[in-house]
Amino acid sequence: MPRSYSSYASPPPPYKSPPYTSRTISSTSQYPQSTTQGTATYDSCSTSGPSMRPGAPSETSSLWSTSTYRSKRSRKVPVLVWVLLAFLFVVVLGQNTGYMSTLMDDVSLAQKAANRMKWRAERERWEVEKARHQYEVDRERETRQHEREEHERDKEQWERDQREGREALENDKAEWHRQQQEEHETLEREKEGWARQQREEREAFDREKEGWARERWEEEKHRKDVEWRRRGAFWSEPWAATWQCSGYGTRPYAAHLWDLPGDVDWHEACMDMPIKINGQWMDGPANCQRDKRHIWGTWYVNFGEPQCVPYWDPIRDMGCSPGRSGMRRYEARLMNLRHGDDWDLMCRTTPADISGIHFDHPDSCEDKNGRTGVWDVPDGWC
Question: Locations of Low complexity compositional bias (predicted)?
Fold first, then answer.
């Protein structure tokens, strides 16, 4: 059955027509008029409706004409806005400059012009007065600057004079001190020479006195020896009482007392009789003893006994003394001990020099790695 078409639409375009071709709406005259009642009613409604605006698009106009109308209408609005803004700007500018009065202004334009001229004249006078005042201020500043410079020059000159005066005074003072120093050094040399001379004279006198005293002492010992010998008593040749040393550089000697008269107190005679040992006179013995056949005395000789002189190995610094604040400990081994010597006695009587200080004996003696002496020496670092 062949396809039928409505009377209100045109047939579709052929397939060979180019795509995307703009089509316009056909006018109503292209469509056949219907003779039915419905068609008449449609026409009457169309003619009785509201009239179209001039230039407004109609059903018969194209789509392109509708968009053109809307763009023209939208461009008219910004132009009106810019015109209104320019008018308001001109009004405000005229009111602010005084060339146009405002609704709230009760001063006339002529009065405003007169006031403006008056203000301009006052401003010119103020500018002149300001320039004159600035000129006076500049003059005053220059005057003060000149006075300040003069004052600075005077001050520098005064300081220079003062400095030169001080330097001259210091030079004079230094020269005076130098002369005083030379005089003092000369006086000190003379004083030192006089003191040295006095010391030498005193030492010579002391030597003479000591020699005289020794001579008197030896004479006294010799007199006593002669006296006791005259009475028949005398000492035998002294001998070493033991091969052991009894202390540092000390050894005991003994001698028999012979031919003592029977009416003489043996102990008094023993303690009073001198003896010569190692070429030197000695007083009475340290002690006297007696048995059934002999009387003998014992002396402790501390000279001429090199075999009884031990010495210390190099002294070692052991650090701060434990348990003793402000003390430093030193230790050294005792050397040159002979077999049979009392090491503790020899240790306790052997002197030493530590850090320039002389010690007659150590503080203690210990038997560790050999016979060892221990000293605790004051030290501020401990």
Answer: 18-39
